[in-house]
Amino acid sequence: MDNRISIEKLMEYVVPVTESGCWIWIGSMQEDSRRMNAEWENVHPDEYFWEVHFGHIPTGQCVCHKCNVQCCVNPSHLCLKATEGVSGETA
Ligand SMILES: [Zn+2]
User: Fold this and answer.
1) What is the mean pLDDT of the segment spanning 15-32?
2) How far away, in angstroms, is 91 Cα from ligand 1 center?
3) Which end of the chain, N or C, is less packed with Cβ atoms under 10 Å?
4) Nearest to 84 by CA among 58, 47, 55
5) Domain map of the chain by residue range?
């Protein structure tokens, strides 16, 4: 993934919630960010924030939220989880 979009630009679409420490991503809810999202193709904001702060996400891993807030992008609330077994779980 290249770094066309700066963290400063991303932060324009983040609302910090001071009580919980969560950074709520509002980019996907805003009309004027659709163009920006199109540039990202299928990049999720939480994955982007992870890569900006911690580097490349290893193959077979995905970003999950320790705080259980799906739209949170605070790097300190994110963790990596193995994707193995998740998709093939339907019996
Ligand atoms: Zn959070």
Assistant:
1) 81
2) 32
3) C
4) 58
5) 7-89
